[in-house]
Amino acid sequence: MNQSKPPALLDLDPSFLTPVEGPSPDVTPPDAPSVAAPPEASAADAAGPGAPAAPPPAVSYPLVPLPPGAIPAAFSRAVDPASPAAGRMMAARAMAPIPPRALVPIIYQLHLDPDPMVAAAAAKSFANLDERLIAPVLGDALPAPVLEALAHALVNRFNVAEKLLLNRAVPDSAFGWVAEHTEDSSIINVIVENQERLLRDHRIVRALKRNPKALRSELDKAIDFLVREGLFLEDIPEFEDAFLRLGKAEQLAVLKNVKVSNEHLSERELNKAADLGMSADEFISSGADLMSDREREAILDELADMDGEGDQSEESTRTPFMKLPIPIQIKMAMTGSHEKAIEALNSPNRVVAGSAIRNPKIKENDVVKISRSKTMHEDVIRYICNNGDWTKSYTVKFNLVQNPKTPPTLISRWLPLLRTSDLKALAKSKQVPSNVALLAKRLMSTREG
To answer: Of 53, 146, 371, 426, which sits most exposed with the smallest number of CB within 10 A?
Structure first.
C-alpha cells in the first residue's frame, strides 16, 4: 500500500520565529489529506486592489523611514515588504529572536509596513516596550528617528527615560517634547539639570514653561542658569524676573557674557571705535560718548516733558537702539555711555529702562528731569525713590510727589516736607493725582489753622 507523502511545510525564515509549545496550527499534520493552502493574504489585500493604502498608525512622533544600513543586513528581511507577513508580524510584536540593538529599530521601521496589521502591531509594541528589551540600548547611538520615538514612548517611565535623556545622541527636539509633555517630576529634574542642552536649544525652556506639571521652582532654576550665561528670551517674562532678582554686581557679571558685535553699532559708532582701536564690545564698555552735552540735554528735556499715562510713543521705541536684541540693550543701558543710558530710559522694557537708571553715568542733574516724566517706567521711578542720595534733593522730591508712579507711602512721607507755596500749587493742580491734591489741601488746612 502506497503511503502518501506529507505536504511540505511553509517556507518561513526560522530567524523570525521563536520556539512554541506543541504543534503549530499553521502546519498540516502528516496524516491529514493534502490540501493546497491559499496564498497568504494581508488585511490590506482583503480591502480589494482598488482600495487606498491604509494610513500609518497614529503616533505622537514623526515617522521617517530609516536610511539604508540602519538595520543590519542579517535582519533586513524583517522589514522587507516582500518577505512573509508572518515573519514581519513576529518582529512587529517583539517576538523575533533578534538582538535588541537591531530589534528596536526594526519595530520602529515596521510602523511603515504596507500591511496595516503589521504596522498597528509595531506601533502597539513600541508604545509598550519591555524594559528588559530596551534597557541595554538606551545609551546607544541608535538612528535619530528611533531615539525621538523612544523619547515619546518613555515620556513618563523614569527608570528608562532617565538613561535615554542622558544619551547625547537623542535629538534636542525629542528632549523638548519630553519637557513639555512629561508628568513625572523626576524626569523634569533631569531636563533642568542638562545645562548643555538648555544652552544649545532654547525651545526646551519654552517647552518647560508650557508644561502644567513643571513646578515654578524648576522653571526658575532653568531660567536662572540661562540668564547667568547672558541669555534672555524676550517671549518669556520670567527671564526679566530672573535678571531683576540678581544684585547689581551679579548683573554686571552676567553682562560680561553678553558680547556686542559690529552689527550692533551704528556707522558713526563703528568709525569712532576704529579711531580708538577698540572692538565693538570694548567700545561700549569704555563708555565713550558721541553726543554733545546739548544733545543729551535735549533728549532729557523731551523725556521730562512727556505727559500722561501709558507707554512711550511707537515712534520713540523704533530707534535703532530699540531694535537691538534685549541682552545687548541691557548691556548698553547699564555699562555703556551716558548717551546710551539716556536713550535706554525711553525703553518700554522694564529691565532695559531699569538697567539704564543704574548706569553710573546718570547724575543728579539727569534725575531731576527723569523724575518729572510721567511716562517713565515705574521701575525707574521706584529706583530713584529708593536712592537716598538723589531724594535729598528738594526738586527731586517735589517732582516725585507729582509723579503718579511714586508709591503712595513715600508721597505721604514727603508732602509735609514741601514748602507752603508748593503745597498750595499741588492743592489746586489738575495735573497731579487726585489723592495728592486732596492730601495737599489737608496739610494746607492744618498749617493755616
So the answer is: 53
CA–CA distance, 332 with 232 (Å, rounded to integer)? 15
- Percent pLDDT > 70 in the chain is 83
Instruction: For residues 406 and 379, give the distance between their C-alpha atoms in angstroms, rounded to a whole number.
Output: 10
> In the structure grid, which three cell numbers stand for residue 197, read together?
542642552
First to last CA, the chain: 141
**Closest by CA position to 432, among listed 272, 309, 273:** 309
* Among 261, 253, 264, 205, residue whose Cα is nearest residue 232: 205
Determine the Cα–Cα distance for residues 374 and 277; give it in Å rounded to an integer.
41
Q: Is the pLDDT of residue 48 over 50?
A: no
Dist CA 228 CA 221 (whole Å): 11
Residue 93 DSSP symbol: T
Q: What is the full DSSP assignment across 291-319?
A: S-HHHHHHHHHHHHH--SSSPPPTGGG-S
- Nine cell digits for residue 288: 565713550
| pTM for this entry | 0.72
In angstroms, the CA 216 to CA 21 distance is 55
- What's the pLDDT band for 447 if we cut at 50, 70, 90? confident
Q: Residue 206, class by beta-carbon neighbours within 10 Å (0-12 exposed, 13-18 middle, 19+ buried)?
A: middle
Q: How far apart are CA 313 and CA 258, in angstroms?
A: 28
Are 183 and 215 in contact, with CB atoms under 8 Å apart? no
The number of beta carbons lying within 10 Å of the beta carbon of residue 449 is 5
Segment holding 354, helix H or strand E: helix 350-357
- pLDDT tens digits, 102-115: 999 999 999 999 99
158-165 and 185-193 are packed helices; what angle lies between their axes, rounded to 10 degrees? 10
For 311-318, what is the mean pLDDT? Answer: 45
Q: Is 410 exposed, middle or buried (0-12, 13-18, 19+ CB in 10 A)?
A: middle
Say what the pLDDT of residue 10 is: 36
CA dist 89 and 137 (Å) reads 22
Cα 259 to the center of its chain, rounded Å: 21
Grid cell, residue 381, equals 521711578
Distance of CA 127 to the CA centre of its chain: 27
Looking at residue 435, its pLDDT comes to 87
Q: What is the dihedral of CA 413, 414, 418, 420, to 10 degrees?
A: -40
For residue 141, which of 171, 178, 162, 98 has the smallest C-alpha distance? 171
- Per residue in 236-276, pLDDT (tens digit) is 999 999 999 999 899 999 999 999 999 999 888 899 999 99
Distance CA 346, CA 340 (A): 10
